[in-house]
Task: structure prediction
Amino acid sequence: MPLLERKDSVTIARGIISKSKATETEVVIDSAIDRFVRYAEHGPTQDADRGHALVRVRVRNKTPEGYREATASCGSLEPAAYKAALERAQELALVAPPNPRLAPLGGAVMVPMVLRDRATIDQTFEAKARWIKLATEACAKHGLFPAGLAQTTGISRAIVNSCGREVLSYQTRAAFSLTATGKNGEGWAEAIARTIGALPIEATVQRAIDKALAAQDPEPIEPGEYTVVLEPAAVASLLLFTGYEGFGAREYEEQTSFLCGRLGQQVFPPSVTIHDDYRHPAWASLPFDGEGTARTQVVLVENGVPKRVVTDRNHAAHSGGESTGHALLQPSSHGPMPQNLVLLPGKQSRAELVAGVERGLLVTQLHYVNLMDPRELLLTGITRNGTYRIENGKLGRAVRNLRFTDSLVRTLGTLSGISNEQVVCGALFDGECVVPALRLSLRFTSTTEF
Result:
């Protein structure tokens, strides 16, 4: 199915709202096209070309004790399906407990509509197969076994409510990854961009192969504290936790955020500046949040000093401020969170970061990172897909993977270098951010046999 046009989404949403008996009604209509190809040694192994639509209906009945709210959804654009979703939501709202913290739905707003990138949305299997052929042939030349994913996605989202809010926009994503495996070691690389034209396919393939060749026969290593150069994918796995559990108003109010007692203080080196920027040219996103509020660009950390948290309509109403446009789709128990984190670059190349290490490690990626203590952002995870010694400023042999356990607050405080290149990277728990490579200290608590 094609992505829905504005007139189609708004017409459906208005029709649902006109039939609602609730005090307030909100309709969110998502449509998506997802095309991906998985591949291995002999080429494509799975091809999918999927389109779907989802209609979410949220209704509220106002009472003296607060709004009674409920939501229902359907995966069809058939009138009978979304009519049934409205009826379910209305029935559930009658028995829902009142919530005095809910603010009224927002009224009319003006937001820009991001245009679709047709080349990305319409890219064919044949085009992805050319990427894959490049990867498999390059791996074959070096006796490596390839595996990876080529994917293009396009989405449209419309949010319409009974208070006059009507917003719609589009977003596209393109990605290509390669894991190249040898007899005893592997290398990985991934490229993510808003459009297929921005994907450096050849460079991504070469990076994975170079890492795989250097990763063979990794040697044992003792755990301990090392100076490390974290490549952007590893940085993203850490930085995203500041969004999940730190920069939101809910965590700050509940005193679980690492920002508690640190706002306005010099927590990190002056070289650390973090923005939430939905308009970043490398990774532009929807211009409105899950409540249909216009997103704003927010300086979260400036020259090492945490400045503020992000808000949604509910938290802004109770704090007396304005929403920064960082709500998730409602209802949500999580609260607002930044979804477009950008760590500003420095002035050194990645090679210069490595050259500044007397004895340490280069880490390609961190795997399955988990949170242990939100107040200190204590995290633990394992290195993956290429970890290498650095001796006297030069890359050495690959080492076996290690488990790290460290506070992100502490380790960012040891920062001694930031690369001048930013890359769009994701992580296991979903989401992407724009990050450079970093040189800092990281504590490793155990080793592995692989």
Summary: The chain has two domains: 6-202, 218-450. The longest helix spans residues 79-95. The CA atoms of residues 273 and 344 lie 6 Å apart.
